[in-house]
Amino acid sequence: MASARERSAGTGDLVVSADGTQIAFDRSGTGPAVVLVASALADRSDTAKLAALLAEDFTVINYDRRGRGASGDADSYTPDREIEDIAALIAHVGGSASLFGSSSGAVLALRAAAAGVDVDRLALYEPPFVVADGDDGPPGDLAQQVNALLADGRDGDAVRYFMTRVQGMPGAAVFFMKLMPKVWANLTGMARTLPYDIAVMGETQRGEPLRPEEWQGVTVPTRVLTGGKSPAAFRRAADAVTEILPRADHRVLHGLGHGAVVMTPRKIAPQITEFLKMS
């Protein structure tokens, strides 16, 4: 899909995606390749600890999704551009790799596999599909609200809106995050990519069953992980994924919540490693 040209970057490496956008990444470890696909409002710093743990067994590509960190961006966006970014990274490591994605990054990983990118295996943590009527989903006008705030230059308000209305974070927690200048600056620096994750999710958070035809290209072994402390809607979403994919299963990790990839990577890494090593 994308032919990759690489050169050294100051804080990692760069690969050039199909549309010419430079994608920054860190490469570590040896062995079969796995690419880490971050969630909304996250860059490779958020998955650095997980990358270090997985590097004991794999060649790990931990990258900044476009518009984040040291990666570039383009004037227009569709999820296909991010799929091309993943394809370029996979080309860099020899033409095939497994993917691990969390939250909306899990859905992006699924979309890459569905589009025909050469993926060996998929490990996914809590893809945030909303598949049952009555499960809490984002506001119906989420895209309009976020786009309006960004158009007004209110990037911080867009981040707060997304965190409270989509991620379910208490307003007090967001307030305390604002008191940490480096953390808040990093989050607001990624605010312009919120519409990207909204586009990646598409029509999958409306309390309706997943459409099998949308994911029929996903034929590789897939494991969906969910946290036992997370809302039950995540487990219903995981079950929905396993029902429509021919080679998928679902494991619940007791005691973990939606932020486990960042907060407790040591409890997730063994699950990913076990699955990716299966013959």
- Which sequence of SSEs, written as H and E, runs from N to C? EEEEHEHEHEHHHHHEHEHH
Helix content: 25-40%
- Rg calculated over all Cα atoms: 17 Å
Spatial strand order of the main sheet:
1-2-3-5-4-6-7-8-9
Q: Class by helix and strand content? A: alpha/beta
Poorly predicted runs: 1-10
Tell me about the biggest sheet? 9 strands, mixed
Q: What is the number of beta strands?
A: 9
Instruction: Estimate what percentage of residues fall within beta strands.
Output: 15-25%
* Oligomeric organization of the protein chains: single chain
- State the separation between the terminal residues, measured CA to CA: 27 Å
Helix count from the secondary structure assignment:
11
Globally, the shape reads globular
Mean pLDDT, as a whole number?
94
Mind explaining what this structure looks like?
- With 279 residues, the protein is α/β, with parallel strands linked by helices.
- The protein has 11 helices and 9 strands.
- A 9-stranded mixed beta sheet has the order 1-2-3-5-4-6-7-8-9, sandwiched between helices.
- The radius of gyration is 17 Å and the shape is globular.
Please give the structural blueprint:
Elements: E1 6-9, E2 12-16, E3 22-28, E4 33-37, H1 48-54, E5 59-63, H2 79-92, E6 97-102, H3 104-114, E7 119-125, H4 142-151, H5 155-165, H6 171-178, H7 181-189, H8 194-201, E8 222-227, H9 232-244, E9 248-253, H10 260-263, H11 265-276
